[in-house]
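Per reviewer request, we include the raw input and output of the structure prediction for the construct analysed in the revised manuscript.
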Amino acid sequence: MNWEEKFMLLAARARTEEVPQVNVVPEVLTLLSSGQAEPLTVAENLWMWLAAGASAVAVPAAVVAISVYNASMGPLREIVNSISWAM
């Protein structure tokens, strides 16, 4: 029996299996409704403020990087345009 026949046999067995009926909604809802919201720990607060600060710095840094890139590409474009006749 080669691997393809084994695979087809396993697929046929899998198709005949019954799917178990599981309903976990009541247990999950009671678990969610009974729990109290826990306050953030000092470490979680620190990471939250660190992420907020990093995001606040990343956006202006990206804008500056794009504008510097565009400004520095001007001379290179002129050089490429001036020698483009050779290509």
